[in-house]
């Protein structure tokens, strides 16, 4: 793709803004998390890892993630510590 210098600056600004927003979200999630609230829903886990939510399902099927099921409704929650280790293997 050929991009002129005139068009490159807005594109670069957009990419930097998206990266900054992602980093801010990760920091906010980490700051909100204490030992008793260190769990995320599937969608928040996906945002935290910057992946598509279906990849979280794949990690569960492959045994790389082990969700904790909430009591009555059975919704899955994922430990932040486990999410942090998933790409360090």
Description:
The chain has a single domain (8-86), classed as Multidrug-efflux Transporter Regulator, Chain: A, Domain 2 (Orthogonal Bundle), CATH 1.10.1660. The protein is 58% helix and 9% strand. It has helices spanning 5-32, 42-49, 53-61, 80-86, and strands spanning 39-40, 68-69, 76-79. It is elongated and about 55 Å long. The termini are far apart.
Features:
mainly alpha; 4 helices; 9% strand; Multidrug-efflux Transporter Regulator, Chain: A, Domain 2; 89 residues
What's the quick description here?
With about 90 residues, the chain is mostly helical. It contains 4 helices and 3 strands.
Percent strand equals 5-15%
The chain-level structural class is mainly alpha
Fraction of residues in helix: 55-70%
Euclidean distance between termini CA atoms = 34 Å
Q: How many structural domains in the coordinates?
A: 1
- Radius of gyration, in Å, reads 17 Å
| Largest sheet: number of strands, sense, barrel closure | 3 strands, antiparallel
- The shape is elongated
Give unreliable regions as ranges: none
Q: Report the count of strand segments.
A: 3
Strand arrangement across the biggest beta sheet: 1-3-2
At the third CATH level, what is the topology name? Answer: Multidrug-efflux Transporter Regulator, Chain: A, Domain 2
The CATH class is identified as: Mainly Alpha
Give the name of the CATH architecture. Orthogonal Bundle
Write down the secondary-structure element order. HEHHEEH
Enumerate how many helices there are, as a single number.
4
Mean pLDDT: 81
């Amino acid at each position: 793709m050929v991009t002129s210098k005139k068009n490159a600056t807005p594109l670069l600004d957009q990419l930097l803004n998206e990266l900054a927003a992602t980093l801010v979200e990760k920091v906010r999630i980490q700051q909100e998390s204490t030992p008793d609230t260190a769990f995320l829903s599937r969608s928040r886990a996906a945002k935290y890892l910057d992946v598509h939510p279906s990849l979280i399902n794949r990690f569960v099927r492959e045994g790389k993630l082990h969700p904790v099921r909430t009591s009555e409704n059975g919704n899955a929650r994922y430990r932040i510590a486990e999410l942090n280790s998933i790409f360090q293997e």
